[in-house]
C-alpha cells in the first residue's frame, strides 16, 4: 500500500467510527415532545411516563425547568394560570410524583442548561 492508500484507509475507518458514535449518541437521547434530552438526565422510573405527556405539558415542564413562575408560563403559552396548575397536577399524576416540588426538581434536571 502507498502512503495515499494508507491515508485513505485511515480516513474511511475514522468516518466509520464517527458514524457509529453518532448512531450511539442518537440512541442515548430521549425524545420529550419536540425536544431531545440526554438519557443520563432522565430518571429510569420516569422514562416511559414522560412519553405520555402532551405537547403543552412538555412546554410547561420546559419553562418550569428554566425557573419560570406559573404566571410567566401562562403568559408565554397564552393560557390561564389556572390551566398551568391543571397541567402541573396532570404531570404529577402521570409521572407518579408526590407534588409540584418533585416536578420542579425533575423539570430542572431535564431542561436546566448545563452551562
TrEMBL record:
Superkingdom of this protein's organism: Bacteria
Q: Which residues form the HTH luxR-type domain?
A: 46-111
- Report the Pfam families cross-referenced here: GerE (PF00196)
Could you confirm whether the keyword DNA-binding appears in this record? yes
Which SMART domains does the record cross-reference, listed alphabetically? HTH_LUXR
* InterPro entries attached to this UniProt entry: Sig_transdc_resp-reg_C-effctor, Tscrpt_reg_LuxR_C, WH-like_DNA-bd_sf
Q: Mind listing the UniProt keywords for this protein, alphabetically?
A: DNA-binding, Transcription, Transcription regulation
Question: Do you know which PANTHER family this protein is assigned to?
Answer: DNA-BINDING TRANSCRIPTIONAL ACTIVATOR DEVR_DOSR
Protein name as it appears in the record = Helix-turn-helix transcriptional regulator
Amino acid at each position: 500500500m502507498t502512503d495515499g492508500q494508507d491515508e485513505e484507509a485511515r480516513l474511511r475507518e475514522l468516518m466509520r467510527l464517527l458514524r457509529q458514535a453518532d448512531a450511539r449518541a442518537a440512541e442515548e437521547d430521549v425524545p420529550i415532545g419536540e425536544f431531545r434530552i440526554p438519557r443520563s438526565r432522565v430518571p429510569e422510573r420516569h422514562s416511559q411516563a414522560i412519553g405520555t405527556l402532551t405537547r403543552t405539558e412538555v412546554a410547561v415542564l420546559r419553562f418550569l425547568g428554566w425557573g419560570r413562575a406559573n404566571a410567566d408560563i401562562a403568559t408565554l403559552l397564552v393560557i390561564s394560570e389556572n390551566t398551568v396548575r391543571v397541567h402541573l397536577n396532570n404531570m404529577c399524576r402521570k409521572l407518579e410524583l408526590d407534588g409540584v416540588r418533585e416536578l420542579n426538581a425533575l423539570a430542572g434536571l431535564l431542561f436546566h442548561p448545563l452551562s
